Amino acid sequence: VKQRVIGRGFGPLLGIVFAIATPVAGTAFARSVAVDFTGGVNATVKGVHVLKDYWFELSEDWEFTKPALLELRFSHSPILKRDLSTVTVAMNGSPVDSFYLDKTNQSDAFATIPIPARLLRGGMNVLTLTVKMRSDLEDLCDDVHNPALWTLLDRESLLTVQFEDRKVVPDLAGFPGDYANPDLLYGEGEERVHAVILVPPEPTPAEWDALAGLTTLLGQDVGLGRGEFRVIMGGRAEADVLRSRHVVLIGSPAFLRAFTAGAWSVPIPLDAVAREPAGFLMEFASPFDPGRRLLVVTGRDDDAIRLVAEHLKSPASVRGLKGPVVSFDKPPTSLMPESEWSEAAFVVRLVDLKLSDMILRGKFYHSVNFTVPNPFVGKVKDGAFLRLAMSHSELLLPQSSSLLVKVNGEPIKSI
């Protein structure tokens, strides 16, 4: 049953992001997060037909079995004509609900709209608000540039998403990005740890090399700004430290044997590892949390572990892996083709942000926003450039069609 509540007035929110856990049948836990999809910024849309896209990320380690709840807070111009002014809400391209803009929701209004769970997905999602506005003027052309047609989308709007952690099916296809802790996506705990890495008490040079290569790769792909990768020497850690976090084990079969029994009981094929000259990456479900991963970096000796380390330091060679176990018996070869970006310190594409092609349709004004991470601790030294690959309908009129690019709200270029 779909229910929508529209009303006026709202009090201050007690928090932008929060998580709630409540037990359900079995071992799974249903939890919820409040997604601040506006980024804490009011947005005012103007015109007669406007699309406003809000992109937000949900973890690919989550399953969505219950509807999400959109709390949309807004105000609009008092001159809007009810029969011709509406808001349509869509999730990932599928319409969910529509309602009129009229005197009953003119100031400090809110709409509570359920979003079916089947419309949500792991990765990037887009909430689209299509706002149609008209006044009493009979001629549409008079309304096209009418500054009195506006709707304010309030920054205190929220989307509450209910989810359950998906049980891990070991597969290195998502390595290294899979080792981001989904709890950190919207959580605000004091300890922000993606994974706990256990190494021998006195690591060999090859084990140090593997640790350095792995942490650099994880930092580049996952992002240290969103959490840390905690290293523990000696291979001992309390279960509470490991629960709800990914785990990594680095070492030889002699070091790993202790993890194949007792509370760990990780089925590492140590005898097979000891027979092979290759180095190995292996993935298992964590014995401390079925929704978290356990990665093993190993080889029968330093030469084998060094092979893995060399591949970890060559990101192109460890992307696109398949299956729970991968072996490396040769040093990596360069897989990075020369390009105009080869001298760039940092390159990011839409696909790196887990975004697909962006398509804008319809008349008048449209906008699309996305966030690009800044990996630099200090200031950007030599600026940046944007390579925009785009196409448009041949029917567009050049004299009335344009594109404006803004960065952090500042206009950069118009074409």
Offer a concise description of the structure.
Helix content is 12%, strand content 33%.
Any overview of this molecule?
This protein is mostly beta strands and 415 residues long. The chain has helices at residues 140-144, 205-223, 239-242, 253-256, 270-275, 302-312, and strands at 5-8, 19-23, 29-35, 43-46, 49-58, 62-63, 68-76, 86-91, 94-100, 109-115, 123-132, 150-153, 158-165, 193-199, 228-233, 246-250, 279-286, 289-299, 325-328, 366-367, 404-407, 410-414. A hairpin with a 2-residue loop joins β17 and β18 (289-299). α2 packs parallel to α6 (302-312). The longest helix has 19 residues, at 205-223. It starts with a strand and ends with a strand. Mean pLDDT is 84; it is low at 8-27.
State the helicity in percent bands: 10-25%
Radius of gyration over all CA atoms, rounded = 26 Å
Estimate the global geometry from the Cα principal axes. elongated
What is the residue-averaged pLDDT? 84
Question: What's the total helix number?
Answer: 6
Query: What distance separates the N and C termini?
Result: 47 Å
Number of separate strands: 22
Order of helices and strands: EEEEEEEEEEEHEEEHEHEHHEEHEEEE
Helix-strand makeup class? mainly beta
Largest sheet: 9 strands, antiparallel
Classify the beta-strand content into a percent band.
Answer: 25-35%
Question: Spans of 5+ residues with little confidence (pLDDT < 50)?
Answer: 8-27
How are the secondary structure elements laid out?
Layout: E1 5-8, E2 19-23, E3 29-35, E4 43-46, E5 49-58, E6 62-63, E7 68-76, E8 86-91, E9 94-100, E10 109-115, E11 123-132, H1 140-144, E12 150-153, E13 158-165, E14 193-199, H2 205-223, E15 228-233, H3 239-242, E16 246-250, H4 253-256, H5 270-275, E17 279-286, E18 289-299, H6 302-312, E19 325-328, E20 366-367, E21 404-407, E22 410-414
Parallel strand pairs: 5-20, 14-15, 14-16, 16-18
Antiparallel strand pairs: 1-10, 2-3, 3-13, 4-12, 5-11, 6-13, 7-10, 7-12, 7-13, 8-9, 8-11, 17-18, 17-19, 21-22
Helix pairs in contact: 2-6
